[in-house]
What does this fold into?
Amino acid sequence: MKSLLASILLLAGSASAMAQMSPVGLWRSVDDKTGESKAEIRIAESGGGLQGRIEKTLRKDAKPDAACDECTDDRKGKPMVGLDIIRGGKKAEGKDVWEGGKILDPENGKEYRASFTPIEGGKKLEVRGYLGPFWRTQTWNRVQ
It folds into this structure.
């Protein structure tokens, strides 16, 4: 009986650790230049891919009624809080990386190809945006 209970607890712990090696969760983005926290983004799985929305803006100079004025698609004029900034992205076979998605930079309205790689046991997330052969990587911190 004790060994059965220990096995169940071990499996539950393993499943919890594996769940952390996913981009699904609440993340805090950090400004590349200033090191300040910019926003909290909730990433979920939806329709077989990733979907991420801004839950809270954290910038000191953020206006509460700020909208994505630079966006050129269906997000134009939508409030920043609740804005859908990640669309798509599926787990690459045999790797802890989600590829094939898009990420929006709401400050300039540009959308980039993106990949998402959990690091440090899922405590951080490398978010890489691609424009042609060039890329930029940000490291986001897990909130939950």
